[in-house]
Structures are given as C-alpha cells and as structure tokens.
Design goal:
Largest sheet: 8 strands, mixed
Number of helices: 16
Radius of gyration: 23 Å
CATH architecture of one domain: 3-Layer(aba) Sandwich
CATH topology of one domain: Alkaline Phosphatase, subunit A
Shape: globular
Number of strands: 16
Helix content: 25-40%
C-alpha cells in the first residue's frame, strides 16, 4: 500500500517545485528523500491533534480464534468448523458465536473486521508487527524494535498530559514497547509482571485495578513513602555507575520519569480513577466481580479521568483440567481450546457487553474506541498434538477478526470476508496497518511524522496502510 497522505494535498509552492525539479522521476517514486508522497504530505495542512479521542485496547495476547468467535464457518468440514454454532445478532446478517449471547444483542454498537492480515506467525514478532506497523528483524523479541501505538500516542500527545498518564497499561506486552522513543513513553503500570514480556504463558492475570499490594504505589502513605525512599536509594546507586551508562537512553530519562511518577502518586485524581468503590454496586454487578469485569470497569474510569490510551491484557486463569495457559495461545499442548472458550467467554460476554453499553449510555461512544484483538488468528484446521488428544488451534496471521466499538466510527457492520474455511481474506483484504492508520487518523496524528532510531535513521510512524473508509 502507498504511504499515507492527505486526500487533497493542495497546490505546491515554488520552493517545493524547485526541489522536485532537482530530482529525477525515478528518485521521486523510489523513496529517495524528498519523495513525491512525502512532498505532498509535507505540503498539506498540518492535522490538529484530537483533545478527546481515546482508546481502550483489550489485548487477547496469544491470538484468539476468529473461527470460534466472530467468523464462524458452519458449512466447513468438521476438522475446521469446531463445535460452536453462529447466532443471529440484533443487526440482520451479522452472526457471532453462540457463546456470546449478550454481545449479540449489541451488534448495532460494534463493528467486526474480518479481513486483516500480516506475515508474522510468532507471538512477539507478530505483536511487534501488529502494534507498530513494522516487521522486526528478530523473531522472539521481548521488546519491540519500533514504538508501539500506545507509545506513539504518548509521545504525540505529551503536551496534553494532566494529572493522569496519557498511556496506562496493566503489564507489558510480549514484543511491544516504546523502543527508541525511550522508557518515558512506556505505559504507566500499577503492578506489572516481568513475565508478561517473555514467552511465558502461564503467569497469573495481571490486574490493572488496584489490589492491596499495588495500592501502595498510588498512595502517599507511610508504606508509599517507604517505596519512594527505596527508589531514591536506587537512584543513588545508579548515579554511581560508570559515566558511559549515564549516556544511555534509560538514564537520560530517569530524572524526568521519576519526577513524573511522584507527581502522579500525589494526584488525588489518579487515586480516585483507580478506586472502584466509587462505582455503584449495580454497576460493579453489571461488569461482574471477576478479573475482566474489574479490569474493564477500571479502564473506563481511567479514560474518563483523562487517560488517552489504556491497554489491558485479556488474560484468564483456566482450571488445570482445561489447560495450563493464561492467555489465548490455545494449542492442543496448552489447552482444550473449546473447553477454554466455554469457561472464559461467559465472563467476556458480561464484562465487554457492560463496557460497550456504558460507552453509549455515558455519551463516550463518540470519542472512546474499544478494541478487542490479538496478534493473529488461529489455524482453520484443528490440531490434536497433545498426548491427551484434546483439540487446539495454532498460529495463523493470514486471517483474524477484530472487534471495535464506539470511537465516533460507523458501527453495526462487518468489514471484509474470509474464504469458506477461514483461511484468508477474499473480500476487502487489508494489511493490519490499516487499523493503526484508522486509529492515528482519529487521534489527528500525522503518520508521515518522522522519528529517529538509535542509529539516527529517520522512520515515519507508518510507511504503509490507509484508514479504513467504511469506518469513517
């Protein structure tokens, strides 16, 4: 796909024409700077950053099965279709799995994209590809080689920062991160688990809501003050490291990052945003007294308090007899995929439906976008590799489904289609960058904006991908 640019670039001034006159036609179309696309983009009127658009990303790390959630194939052979039946939603022609009956009654308030794809089939490489728009050199990388979308938003919108961090998460993604933007643009995380940034898939779900332990980091109590003193001791230790380390990106941002952390700790607005006791019993009951219910209710509260990009992993602790994994990596060796879905989808159905209803009831649907997706889909053919012969599906980046709700976008529709076996798009096939381009468009972020990596190489936010016209 071509680089993004304004649909109407307008006239080019004399200076730009002189630049163009000094280049050959081959240079103009081959990417040599200034390329024709870049000149058009640079000459277009600058976009205005949004002051109210926000995103909640409910990330199904591991990769959810499109064939068992939002793109069922009841006519496919048994080894492909799985046991779940599609049910009609409240929008004629849109069907989803029978395991999500509440969500089915809200189809007029969400959209499903069935035709995104990319070319990375390993977890962290696919996460880097999906959330940054770039393919990494490394395959099983813990930290992304390019800034993920949340870090880009944090960098672009840093001038709008208030009492609440722009970018908040429960824990770090495997294969994502701020990369060369530096740690100041990583998400604020109340109580992250380092295992979430590795290939480990059995760690307990990480709460974004406050627990008695994580609350200590948000309250200036005696315990919180002790934590701050320990951080000061850490700073003194770091100061004693060799001068070479002082020049590293981490050290360069430590002072400002520490100062910002103290400001956030002192913010009553920050503490209140995490305090679910401020919600009514009825609201908490609607979301459910579950990990996902408390997580998504907290996400909504953080957005209302001023956060602009909230990421939350959709991790779930399965019963041991169902499987060992806590994510959506439902290989046969990890879990019985269909029992796992039967176990966790009732909680998903309740909490996600409650959040979508809340977005609309509270007037947030015009400027808050909820996204549910993972790094890829799952294989159409069911596998039985585990000695127990339980069913599972493997990695599949050639097709996936993404659920969107709100954001001032056009809901009540399905965009794209896959073939009869769910193997690949046959209608409206789109590079996964198109989703990123759509989100950046709503934020008012110019994807042609260039950052420089640690070698000084200029890298635009996106090189390819166009906003999804059907949503706008």
């Amino acid at each position: 796909m071509p680089a993004l640019r304004s649909s109407c670039p307008g006239p080019i001034d004399r200076r730009t024409w002189l630049k163009v006159g000094g280049l050959s036609l081959g240079a103009l179309v081959s990417g040599v700077e200034p390329s024709l696309a870049r000149l058009f983009a640079a000459d277009a009127a600058p976009r205005r950053l949004s002051k109210d658009f926000s995103v909640i990303l409910f990330w199904a790390n591991g990769g959810p099965s499109h064939l068992d959630l939002f793109d069922l194939k009841p006519g496919a052979p048994e080894e492909i279709r799985g046991p779940f039946k599609p049910i009609q939603t409240n929008v004629p022609g849109i069907q989803i799995t029978e395991e999500l009956p509440r969500l089915a009654q809200l189809a007029d308030k969400f959209a499903i994209i069935r035709s995104l794809h990319h070319n990375r089939a390993e977890h962290s490489g696919a996460t880097n590809r999906f959330l940054t728009g770039y393919a990494s050199v490394a395959a099983n990388l813990n930290d992304s080689e390019f800034p993920d979308i949340g870090s880009i938003v944090a960098k672009q919108l840093e001038g709008q920062a208030g009492d609440i961090p722009i970018y908040i998460g429960d824990t770090k993604f495997y294969g994502a991160g701020p990369a060369y933007l530096g740690p100041a643009y990583a998400p604020f995380m109340p109580s992250p688990n380092p295992l979430s940034s590795t290939g480990n898939n059995v760690y307990d779900p990480v709460p974004i809501y406050l627990t008695p332990e994580s609350a200590k980091n948000l309250v200036l109590s005696s315990e919180g003050a002790l934590t701050l003193r320990r951080r000061h001791q850490l700073a003194q230790t770091l100061d004693a490291l060799p001068r070479a380390l002082d020049r590293s990106p981490t050290m360069a941002t430590f002072d400002s990052f520490q100062r910002r952390a103290v400001e956030l700790l002192a913010s009553s607005k920050m503490r209140e945003a995490f305090d679910l006791s401020r919600e009514s019993d009825k609201t908490r009951e609607r979301y459910g007294h579950t990990h996902w219910g408390k997580s998504l209710l907290t996400c909504r509260r953080l957005i209302e308090a001023g956060a602009r990009f909230v990421q939350c992993q959709a991790s779930y602790r399965l019963r041991p007899e169902t499987g060992r994994t806590s994510n959506w990596d439902d290989h046969s060796v990890n879990s019985h995929i269909f029992d796992a879905y039967r176990e966790k989808l009732p909680s998903f159905d309740q909490s996600v439906s409650a959040l979508i209803e809340d977005l609309y009831q509270r007037g947030l649907d015009k400027h808050v976008l909820f996204i549910f997706c993972g790094e890829f889909g799952r294989t159409p053919r069911i596998g039985y590799q585990d000695p127990s012969r339980r069913p599972g599906r493997d990695h599949w980046p050639r097709a996936m489904s993404v659920l969107l709700a709100g954001g001032g976008l056009k809901m009540g529709q399905v965009i794209g289609a896959t073939n009869a076996r769910g193997e690949e798009p046959i209608h409206r096939a789109m590079n996964s960058n198109c989703l990123l381009a759509t989100i950046y468009h709503r934020f008012g972020i110019d994807v042609n904006h260039v950052y420089y990596d640690r070698t000084g190489r200029p890298i635009p936010i996106l090189q390819e991908g166009e906003p999804i016209a059907e949503l706008l």
